[in-house]
Every structure is written in structure tokens, then in C-alpha cells.
Design brief:
Length: 695
């Protein structure tokens, strides 16, 4: 074999070849360097293996056992059950998904290493465990007694013959071939200052660790690199945004804003006032505002954003107010159109589904400058929408949009001010990562008179009892929400489930009461009517999918039942709950979960029941789910964190932020070491963007 280096194509590595190289390139591994940065998902060593007889519910364990039998059990939730046993007992492995493919791979007598959380539901079981054929593992695990890395796998990799054993072999070979040529882009004083492993040391120990402690040190170094790249990306975006001077100039806050505020049906809270003045302060500056307005659901962010919009209008500038759903955009428009008109301001509503003729009219009025504030969905991003003088961009529920969409709307003006809002309070560590390019205003207090929504969760078995309770509440004049999950992957099935349940509730459970149904597929007019009817009490019960999760405001409803609560994330549950208890009655949320419940699902539900504080909820959500899933970071156009874990690496986040900020600050006075680092990071960030994601 010829000389190999980090850039060598992977197919030339012995044992790879074109076919396997193809499978590897699909997960972003093209050259030797990519392969070395492909990290184990976990490690196995003999000391970590538990005898099946010693397993208890709620622990997470690795066991080794032989297949005793298997079967697909049909039912409401069909599943594959595989019994695995060792000389001390047996346990069931259960899959609800993807089992048709899996079923074939199990043969009686096969030896497997199995890892996962142990639960008890009629029997000891592991739902969706991680499995590894022992024939792939045993020589290393049993005979050499070393710590064995287990790499992430896909069926495609396996089909190309890239089993765990083969992955270990080629990675080991790559280390042998180029290990000596690895160099570090970090200056050695930086490595020493922060007590880091060097890059070669880290890569060696992450793949062939001598001890568990070494794995942690290696991981920490690689996390450092990852966060350094991330901070480079985030801070370059910031530099780009704030490096310009706005075309327009604001006058200090004038009459129109004051009249708008005094004309409100309520008094602003102190936090709202502070937020509004901070924002208007920003708008007066010569550089564009890039601010995040965050605060727990229901704290009243919308009105603060509108004050900014009125301020823009007073200065003859237009505002684009973008919301993630039609329902929400519509609500904003309906709530505010009249109040704005009374102050002499014109607003409009624009959807993708707006009829073409009507749309053209609105688009023309936006272009002519006739409309001051346009509310809408991502339809605002479309090309025919051209502003005369776009001065302010407001993005509601910003985590629903990507960085690119934000950028596109901003691009419709000449350096407009930007205000993004998020009802999911973001833990500080994550805010720094995701919104490192934004300044942050937080509304901490709630409007007066709000009582926290009482929450409890029950399993499906409690439904009959719950219905009796709900009937007594309905008799007292309460109104109810029933929420059903809706996820993209299983949208059709989910919609069907919500519709079936709607029919059942209407016909069988609450025949005396009027029940309505809304979800994303219901036509706009009928949806509007249903929500209006629910708002004014003609409907007593509203069945909805998660379309109502974001922002919808129906003060009269005080009780919410969340069905299949185990399928929701913690922050999402909290968002949903925020829909009730906004009127004068205290809110009540009942989460109904369908067993079997994973350990995480139970933790989520317990936390949901225990805390009503959005920040606390967000912090534990981050811990339970990890930052990747917390927001679906990919939505933000930011690279997914593979190594760093923000719940333990927040110190590294601060350190890397300082380093990059320092390098940027030096700008032209940068020494060659600094220049090299920036060059390396820039190349890295660009190649990452092109790379396909894993999984
Ligand atoms: P969010 O911050 O979740 O977007 P909204 O802006 O939708 O919250 O406000 C929630 C509800 O609180 C709305 O009905 C709004 O009119 C009301 N509200 C906002 N500010 C106040 C206030 N200072 N006093 C009383 N009610 C308020
Ligand atoms: Mg809102």
C-alpha cells in the first residue's frame, strides 16, 4: 500500500475498497481523518457486564446471553419479543419499531451483548436495547480483556460488511498508518493551560483506551475542538451582522408608542416595560439590533414585540412579523389589527394558502409601503414579498425556524433590526451556543393574577375515573382541551387517532357537550370558526393536535388533558400546559401516559408534575434529552454536537468562546499561531457544512 495520510481516500485503506467506502461516505466518512473522528458510541469491558439474575428494574445494564426464543406479538402495539438467557436467568428484549428486519437476524443459540434500561412490565424487559453479536466482540472482550469501543451502526453499514469488528479493525489500521503524522493545530501553551490531551493522544485514547479515565480526557479534548468550531461559526455570524451601519435613524420614543401603551387593556409588567425600552434603545443605535426576547410561556412577549413594531411605524419603517403556524399568525393579527388601526397603523395577514388575487393585493401594498405591519408565516419569505422600507423583523417561536430562514427575512431589508422570540426559555449554556450571535432580554415575571397550573400524570388505566371528574368540572362550566401528539413521521396515523378520539369523546364520553376538533389539516375557515366557538364558550371541549402548542391564547379554557404524554418532550409538555390557566380560573393539566414507559419518559412526567418553572423544566429537559434533541439543533443550521455535552462541558463553552472572541478582537495584529488556528477552523467549519449528517 502506498503512503497514507489524513487526506487519503478511505477506499485505499486495506479491507475497505470501493463498496464499503461508498457506505462510509454516506455517513460522512470520506478520508482517514473523518474515520479517526468517527467516535465510539460506548465502550464495553468485562467489568461492566451484569448477570441477568442480578438485574433490577430502573437500572441500565449490559448483559451477555443466548437467544432462547423469539416471536412477533400482534396487538394494539405489535412488537418483537426476544428472550435472552444466561446461567442465572432470562429477560425479554422488546422492539415496537423496525422489528421486521430485526426479527430475521436472531437465531436460537446466538450470543449477544445487550445494553439498555431495564424496566418491569409483567416481566423484566429492555425496550429497544442496543445489541451487538458476540462473535464480533468475543475475541477482544473475552480474550484480551481490553476496553472495546462500540461504534454507531446502521443497517446499511452492516449490509456492506462493516460490522462492529470490521469497524474496529479499520480504525485501528488507520491509527497505525497515520498515527505518527498527526499534529495539533492548538498551540502547546493553550493545551497546557487548559490541561488538555494533545490531538494525537486524544484520538488514540478515544479508540483504544487504556482506562475509563483516559476516555474522559480524550472526550474532553475532542469536545473542546468541537466547541471551538461552534464558537468560531457563531461569532463569525455575529461579526458579520454587527459590522454594518444601519441606513435609517430612529427618533427617541415618541407619542405614538406612548399612546399605544396607555391604550392597552392592561398595565405592562415591570419586566415588559424594561424589555420594551431595552429594545427601543437598541433600535436607536447605529448598528442593527439582533436580540432574543425570551420568557416563559404566557409572560406576554407579543405586546412587547408590538411596541417595537409601533415604534418602527412611527419612524416610517415597516415590520415583518413571522410566526411558525397559520393559527398563530392569525391570532396575532386578529388580536391586534383593530388596536393598531385605532392608532392609524395598517396591518395585514399573509399565508401560503391566501388566495392568489388577495395575495397580490397584499404584496402590492407591502411594496408600496401602504402596510406598516405584516403578520404571516414563512410565506413572508417568498420572493414577491418586497418591502418599501423594512426596518424591523420579528420572529415568533424562533426555534421553529432555521438560521437561514431568519437570514432570508432579514435580507428583505437593508440591515433591519431583528427581534426573535422564544417561549421555551433557554438554559444559559445553550443560549450561548445557539444564540451566541444574539443579545438576550428575559421576561421573568408573569402578568399579575396568574396561578401556576396544577399538574399530575396518570397511566391510561385512570381514564374512566378521569372522565367522571371531568364531567363534574364541565357541569361547573369549565372548558377542556384534549391534546393528541402529532409527529411528522407518523402524521397520517396520528391524525387518524386524533379524529377517532374526537368521535369517541363526542359520541360516547361527553354526549351532552359540544365538542370541536382542530388540527393542521382542517380548513382555515372551519378552524377559525371552531376556535372562535371555543373561545366564546359555544364549544365546551376542544380536541386538538399539537398545532395549538405554540402561542395560542384561549383564556376561558382551564383544563387540559394531554394524551400519550410519554411521546412529548418535557419542554413541549410545558408549552402545552401554558395554554390553560390564563383566565381567572387556575389551570389544571392532566397527562395520560400509555405504558410501557421508558425510564426517561417517567422522569420527564415526574418533572412535569413537580415543576412549573419554565427555566427549571428547560434545564432538566436538556439533561434528559441532550442538547441535540432539545431543540433539534439541526433546525438552527448549527452543526450537531457529537462529542460535547453541554450539561457537563459548559466550562469549555466559556473557554472556547473567550479564545475565539480574543482571536477576532486582535484582528490585524494576530500572530501566525492565531492566524493558523483561524485558518484551520474556517476550513473545518466549511467542510462540516458540506458533510452529510450521521443518523
Ligand atoms: P407569550 O409570551 O407566551 O407569547 P402572550 O404574548 O401570548 O404570551 O401573552 C399571553 C396573554 O397574556 C395574552 O392574553 C396577553 O394579552 C396577556 N398579557 C400580556 N401582558 C399582560 C399584562 N401585563 N397584564 C395582563 N395580561 C397580559
Ligand atoms: Mg407567544
Amino acid at each position: 500500500m502506498s503512503e497514507m495520510n489524513l487526506e487519503s481516500e478511505i477506499q485505499y485503506l486495506k479491507g475497505v475498497g470501493p463498496k464499503r467506502a461508498d457506505a462510509l461516505s454516506r455517513i460522512g466518512i470520506n478520508n482517514i481523518s473523518d474515520l479517526l473522528h468517527f467516535l465510539p458510541r460506548r465502550y464495553l469491558d468485562r467489568s461492566m457486564i451484569t448477570k441477568i439474575g442480578h438485574l433490577k428494574a430502573n437500572m441500565t445494564a449490559t448483559i451477555i446471553g443466548r437467544v432462547l426464543g423469539k416471536g412477533i406479538l400482534k396487538g394494539r402495539r405489535s412488537r418483537l419479543e426476544v428472550m435472552i438467557g444466561d446461567d442465572t436467568g432470562y429477560i425479554a428484549l422488546i422492539w415496537f419499531e423496525g422489528y421486521k428486519y430485526l426479527e430475521k437476524q436472531f437465531n436460537k443459540g446466538d450470543l449477544y451483548a445487550v445494553t439498555g434500561p431495564i424496566t418491569y412490565f409483567q416481566q423484566l424487559q429492555i425496550v429497544h436495547p442496543e445489541i451487538e453479536r458476540m462473535e464480533d466482540l468475543d475475541s477482544e472482550l473475552i480474550h484480551t480483556g481490553r476496553i472495546v469501543p462500540v461504534y454507531p451502526s446502521t443497517s446499511e453499514l452492516k449490509q456492506a460488511g462493516l460490522t462492529g469488528r470490521v469497524m474496529r479493525r479499520i480504525i485501528n489500521l488507520a491509527l497505525e498508518k497515520v498515527g505518527g503524522k498527526l499534529t495539533d493545530y492548538l498551540p502547546s501553551n493553550m493545551i497546557m493551560d487548559h490541561k488538555l490531551y494533545s490531538l494525537p493522544q486524544a484520538l488514540n485514547q478515544i479508540h483504544y483506551p487504556e482506562s475509563m479515565d483516559n476516555i474522559e480526557s480524550a472526550r474532553r479534548r475532542l469536545a473542546f475542538d468541537e466547541l471551538l468550531e461552534l464558537q468560531y461559526l457563531v461569532l463569525s455570524v455575529r461579526k458579520y451582522h454587527t459590522g454594518v451601519i444601519k441606513k435609517h435613524k430612529y427618533h427617541p420614543s415618541g407619542d405614538m408608542v406612548k399612546r399605544f401603551i396607555t391604550g392597552l387593556p392592561f398595565q405592562l409588567t415591570l419586566d415588559q416595560q424594561k424589555a420594551a425600552y431595552q429594545i427601543m434603545d437598541d433600535m436607536q443605535r447605529e448598528r442593527p439590533m439582533h436580540r432574543l426576547l425570551q420568557g416563559d410561556v404566557g409572560c406576554g412577549k407579543t405586546v412587547v414585540a408590538l411596541i417595537a413594531a409601533v415604534y418602527a411605524a412611527e419612524n416610517k419603517l415597516q415590520t415583518a412579523f413571522m410566526a411558525p403556524t397559520e393559527l398563530l399568525a392569525e391570532q396575532h393579527y386578529t388580536n391586534w389589527e383593530l388596536k393598531l388601526r385605532q392608532k392609524g397603523l395598517t396591518s395585514a395577514l399573509l399565508f401560503g394558502s391566501t388566495a392568489t388575487a388577495e395575495r397580490r393585493i397584499i404584496e402590492n401594498r407591502i411594496t408600496s409601503g401602504d402596510i406598516d405591519i405584516v403578520f404571516g408565516t414563512h410565506a413572508l419569505l417568498s420572493d414577491p414579498v418586497q418591502f418599501k422600507r423594512l426596518g424591523l423583523v420579528i420572529i415568533d417561536e424562533q426555534h421553529r425556524f432555521g438560521v437561514l430562514q431568519r437570514g432570508k427575512l432579514i435580507g428583505k431589508g437593508e440591515h433591519p433590526d431583528t427581534l426573535v422570540m422564544s417561549a421555551t426559555p433557554i438554559p444559559r449554556t445553550l443560549a450561548l451556543t445557539l444564540y451566541g450571535d444574539l443579545d438576550i432580554t428575559t421576561i421573568k415575571s408573569m402578568p399579575p393574577g396568574r396561578k401556576p397550573t396544577k399538574t399530575f400524570w396518570r397511566t391510561a388505566a385512570s381514564r374512566p375515573e378521569m372522565y367522571i371528574f371531568l364531567k363534574s368540572k364541565l357541569e361547573q362550566g369549565d372548558q377542556l382541551f384534549f391534546i393528541y401528539p402529532l409527529v411528522e413521521k407518523s402524521e397520517k396515523l396520528d391524525l387518524k387517532a386524533a379524529e377517532d378520539e374526537y368521535k369517541r369523546l363526542k359520541a360516547e364520553i361527553f354526549p351532552e357537550y359540544k365538542v370541536g376538533l382542530v388540527h393542521g389539516r382542517v380548513k382555515k375557515e372551519s378552524r377559525e370558526k371552531t376556535i372562535r366557538d371555543f373561545k366564546n364558550g359555544r364549544l365546551k371541549i376542544l380536541v386538538a393536535t399539537t398545532v395549538i402548542e405554540v402561542g395560542i391564547d384561549i383564556p376561558a379554557a382551564s383544563i387540559m388533558v394531554i394524551e400519550h404524554a410519554e411521546r412529548f418532550g418535557l419542554s413541549q409538555l410545558h408549552q402545552l400546559r401554558g395554554r390553560v390557566g390564563r383566565g381567572n380560573k387556575p389551570g389544571l393539566a392532566i397527562a395520560i401516559a400509555e405504558p410501557p414507559l421508558s425510564e426517561h419518559a417517567e422522569q420527564r412526567l415526574n418533572m412535569f408534575q413537580a415543576s412549573s418553572n419554565g427555566f427549571e423544566i428547560a434545564e432538566s429537559d436538556l439533561k434528559l434529552r441532550g442538547p441535540g434533541e432539545f431543540f433539534g439543533t439541526k433546525q438552527h443550521g448549527l452543526p450537531e454536537l457529537k462529542v460535547a455535552d453541554l450539561s457537563i462541558d459548559s466550562d469549555l463553552l466559556q473557554i472556547t468562546r473567550k479564545i475565539i472572541a480574543g482571536l477576532f478582537a486582535k484582528d490585524k495584529n494576530l500572530d501566525s499561531v492565531g492566524k493558523n488556528m483561524l485558518k484551520y477552523l474556517s476550513a473545518k467549519v466549511h467542510s462540516r457544512r458540506k458533510m452529510t449528517r450521521f443518523g
